[in-house]
Each structure stands twice: as structure tokens, then as C-alpha cells.
Task: inverse folding
């Protein structure tokens, strides 16, 4: 027999009732071995949301191609969306170092030299300034909702009516959030 008790968004009275349920469940198990586990309830995005945002980017790719005159594939569209909506993270030390090395080599190709001190200053400034796109897989529930909303708002503003989640994706999202509330 396994029971799970969820203490999420409860009033004080509801909390007391749940606490009593847990207590009586433990009393029923007297003489038995059992485990009590405390876990944070994480609200995460769904697989359907990740599929949905990839679908939106897939629909955006030809529109970006038209707008910029350069061929955009799915990955290009995803990268553009991340930059456009500031879905970014600070660069890592390795990424900053790679950029600094590239800049040093570029200067060297022009016949200019860079001192160690100048190189270290460049690495530090790159670390402070450079941002990189985050992975959609790392998005929180709120970030994913916000990105989907922003993409659809951009599409509406630009008159790109085909860039929206189909009814199946929307039904999946509605179902996901209805189940979260239950």
C-alpha cells in the first residue's frame, strides 16, 4: 500500500487536515517498515511544450528566410528566437577563453601582437559581456510559457498567421495545465 500526500498551495486548515491524514497513515503502519520522504514539488514544462516551441520555430524559419534574405533552418530559427527574446545565459570560462583566443589570432593575422596582460583583460571582459543562447530543454515552466507567448505575439504582429500552435498542441497544453491544477 503506497500513499502520497501533496502539500501544495494549501490553506492553514487544509494543511492541518493533510497533516492528520499523514499521521493516521503512519499509525496504521505501526510495526511495518516504511519511508517518509520530503521532496520539492517542481513545476516543469511538458514534453508537448518543447515540441510546441520547436514547431513554432520550424514555422518561423521560412518567414525569417523571407525577412532576412538568408536561408534559415530550424536550428537557425531557434537561435534567432533565443537572441530576440533574451533567452540567454552568461558564457562559461571556456567559451570566454575560446573567444579571446580567436580575437588574439585575428589580431595576429593582421600582424599585431597581444601581451599577456591584454589577453587576460580580454578574457575578463568577454566573461562579463558575452551571452550565449540557453537550451529550450533547460527552460522552466514559466520561461517556456513566456517564450511561446512572445513567439505567437511576434507572429501576430508580423501577420504570420500560420505561425501558431495547432489545435492539437493547444489542446495538449490546456490539458497539461488543467491536470497541474487538479
Result:
Amino acid at each position: 500500500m503506497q500513499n502520497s500526500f501533496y502539500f501544495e498551495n494549501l490553506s492553514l486548515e487544509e494543511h492541518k487536515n493533510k497533516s492528520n491524514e499523514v499521521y493516521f497513515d503512519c499509525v496504521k503502519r505501526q510495526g511495518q517498515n516504511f519511508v517518509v520522504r520530503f521532496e520539492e514539488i517542481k513545476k516543469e514544462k511538458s514534453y508537448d511544450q518543447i515540441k510546441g516551441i520547436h514547431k513554432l520555430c520550424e514555422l518561423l524559419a521560412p518567414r525569417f528566410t523571407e525577412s532576412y534574405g538568408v536561408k534559415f533552418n530550424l536550428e537557425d530559427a531557434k537561435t534567432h528566437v533565443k537572441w530576440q527574446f533574451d533567452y540567454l545565459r552568461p558564457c562559461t570560462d571556456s567559451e570566454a577563453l575560446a573567444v579571446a583566443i580567436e580575437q588574439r589570432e585575428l589580431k595576429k593575422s593582421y600582424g599585431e601582437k597581444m601581451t599577456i596582460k591584454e589577453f587576460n583583460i580580454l578574457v575578463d571582459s568577454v566573461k562579463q559581456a558575452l551571452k550565449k543562447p540557453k537550451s529550450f530543454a533547460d527552460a522552466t515552466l514559466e520561461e517556456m510559457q513566456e517564450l511561446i507567448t512572445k513567439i505567437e505575439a511576434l507572429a501576430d504582429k508580423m501577420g504570420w498567421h500560420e505561425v501558431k500552435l495547432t489545435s492539437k498542441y493547444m489542446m495538449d497544453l490546456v490539458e497539461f495545465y488543467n491536470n497541474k491544477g487538479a
About this structure: The CA atoms of residues 56 and 151 lie 7 Å apart. The mean pLDDT is 83. The beta strands are 88-90, 131-133. Residues 47-181 form one domain.
